[in-house]
Amino acid sequence: MRVIFLDTYDHVAQWVAHYVVYQINSFHPTIDKPFVLGLPTGRTPMKTYKNIITMHQSSQISFKYVIIFTMDEYFGLSCEDPKSYHAFIHTNFINHIDIPKENVYVLNGDTNDIKNECKQYEEKIKSYGGIDLLIGGVGSDGHLAFNEPGSSLTSRTRIKNLSKETRISNSKFFNDNIDSVPKFALTIGIATLLESKEIIIIATGLDKAVAVQAAIEGSINHMWTITCLQLHPKSILVCDELSTMELKIKTVKYFQELEINNQTITI
Ligand code: GLP
């Protein structure tokens, strides 16, 4: 795992935006060879999306030959619902870039055939040869997408019940009313996301510090699904200073040292 320590949320958003743009441009996507990007919702990626949109507006990046898969969706919300992740990703990102609408895939939370919806999503990802780069946030309980504590590390796209901690945290998008937050969600599984060729997880803020500690210093454990990053050959955790507060100083120094050498190699 590569770990990038930056001081602020803004610097994290800048780093990730530049990384995404660089990876897509270096891939030289075409109609026959599109770049497949996995994207999250939530507060964490908001500034990253703003930065990428700005880079798009100044012609540094086009999404014409990019395919987007989002990671999860609340069960029971239709795509027209402003609280749905479908609405979120369109409002905050898709509507501001030049991606053809048919290149964007979001799980349908309003389906009456959950099994088939999840199966089709897995198959659709496979039909494009898998996800090239998956960007994610992390829940304060260490979940990736909606793979809550106790999720199998071999899980595929399915329905999951949401923990109380997650529903309290996500009530910020539901007028702070936990009763309005759906109790279930459709989500890609841990095995699904581990099949991505590259994964970047963004962690910002003090409420992510315990999850960051588990991810870097902890053992692989289904109670902290973020620890699955340790199983991936090309994962990057990008942290702001607040999210590192539970780490040992020795751990931080170790990864900072590695990064200095890493940059020497890549430049
Ligand atoms: C939600 C989403 C996750 C997201 C996480 C963190 O529950 N399902 O994909 O990463 O919570 O959200 P935030 O970025 O708002 O802290």
Question: What does it look like?
Answer:
- With 267 residues, the protein is α/β, with parallel strands linked by helices.
- Helices cover 34% and strands 16% of the residues.
- The protein is built from eight helices and ten strands.
- The chain has helices spanning 9-27, 46-57, 85-92, 114-127, 164-170, 190-194, 209-217, 249-266, and strands spanning 2-5, 35-39, 66-70, 72-74, 104-105, 133-136, 158-161, 184-187, 198-203, 235-239.
- The strands form two sheets. A seven-stranded parallel sheet has the order 1-10-9-6-2-3-5, with helices on both faces. Strands 4-8-7 form a three-stranded antiparallel sheet.
- Helix 7 (209-217) links the parallel strand 9 (198-203) and strand 10.
- Helix 1 packs across helix 2.
- The longest helix is centred in the N-terminal third of the chain and has 19 residues, at 9-27.
- The radius of gyration is 18 Å and the shape is globular.
- The model has no long low-confidence stretch (mean pLDDT 96).
- It binds 2-amino-2-deoxy-6-O-phosphono-alpha-D-glucopyranose.
- 2-amino-2-deoxy-6-O-phosphono-alpha-D-glucopyranose is lined by residues 40-44, 71-72, 136-139, 145-146, 166, 170.
